[in-house]
Every structure is written in structure tokens, then in C-alpha cells.
Amino acid sequence: MKKNPHIGSSLDDLFEEEGMLNDINIIAVKRVIAWQIQKEMAYKNLSKTEMAQQMQTSRSSLDRLLDPDNPAVTLDTIERAARVIGKRVRFELVDAL
């Protein structure tokens, strides 16, 4: 079987060559977490103010958590948000490519 000459390297390969792959992966994970929390807040009809109060944090801290482009959020903040919406957090290390 012949390889298709029009297929090149993957987008991940390009990002890795440019030294951006790790940053992009971190932002992607953060966006998923922020989306999942927002979805559960809507499902449970929780306002940002109510959510922040139940997390025992400020509204601005919750806004940073929900900002998909802000990766600077502590694991503690993520865990407290998960607890309020009835979820738990699971992290794992995987082999590098």
C-alpha cells in the first residue's frame, strides 16, 4: 500500500516543533474543566455568586476558574468547585509521547 504523498506530519508535531504543545494541552484541559463546571452550574441552577459562596471563595476567583483561557488556577480551587457541583476530580500522569 502506498503512502499518500499529500499527508504530512500532524498538528501536534508542528506544535511540538514550535515548543507550544505543552501550553496548548494545558489550555485545552482548562477549557474542558471550565466548560464542565459551567454546565453543571447551569444544570443545578447555581449563580456565580451562589457557587462562590458555597466554595468559600470570591466571585473573582470563580471567574478565573471559569475563564477558559486562564490556566493559573489551583488544584484546591478546582476540587472545591467539583465538590459543590457533586463531582470529584481525578488527575493522572501519562507517558510522554
Write the layout of secondary structure elements.
Layout (H helix, E strand, L loop, with lengths): L10 H7 L3 H23 L4 H8 L3 H8 L8 H10 L13
Protein name: Fis family transcriptional regulator
GO molecular function, one term: DNA binding
Pfam families: HTH_26
Describe the structure.
With 97 residues, the chain is an all-alpha fold. It has one domain (13-85): 434 Repressor (Amino-terminal Domain) (Orthogonal Bundle), CATH 1.10.260. 58% of the residues lie in helices and 0% in strands. It has five helices and no strands. The chain has helices at 11-17, 21-43, 48-55, 59-66, 75-84. α3 (48-55) crosses α4. The chain starts with 10 loop residues before the first helix and ends in a 13-residue tail after the last helix. This is Fis family transcriptional regulator. It holds the Pfam family HTH_26. It comes from Dulcicalothrix desertica PCC 7102. One of its GO terms (molecular function) is DNA binding. Residues 37-85 form the HTH cro/C1-type domain.
Brief rundown of the structure:
It comes from Dulcicalothrix desertica PCC 7102. This protein is mainly α and 97 residues long.
Rounded to an integer in angstroms, the radius of gyration calculated over CA atoms is 18 Å
pLDDT below 50 for ≥5 consecutive residues: which ranges? none
Class from helix and strand fractions: mainly alpha
Coarse shape: elongated
The major pleated sheet works out as: none
Arithmetic mean pLDDT: 86
Helix segment count?
Answer: 5
CATH C-level category: Mainly Alpha
Number of domains as seen in the coordinates: 1
Q: Strand content of the residues, in percent?
A: under 5%
Say which CATH homologous superfamily is assigned. Answer: lambda repressor-like DNA-binding domains
- Head-to-tail CA distance between termini: 26 Å
Percent helix range:
55-70%
CATH architecture: Orthogonal Bundle
Order of helices and strands: HHHHH
Provide the CATH topology: 434 Repressor (Amino-terminal Domain)
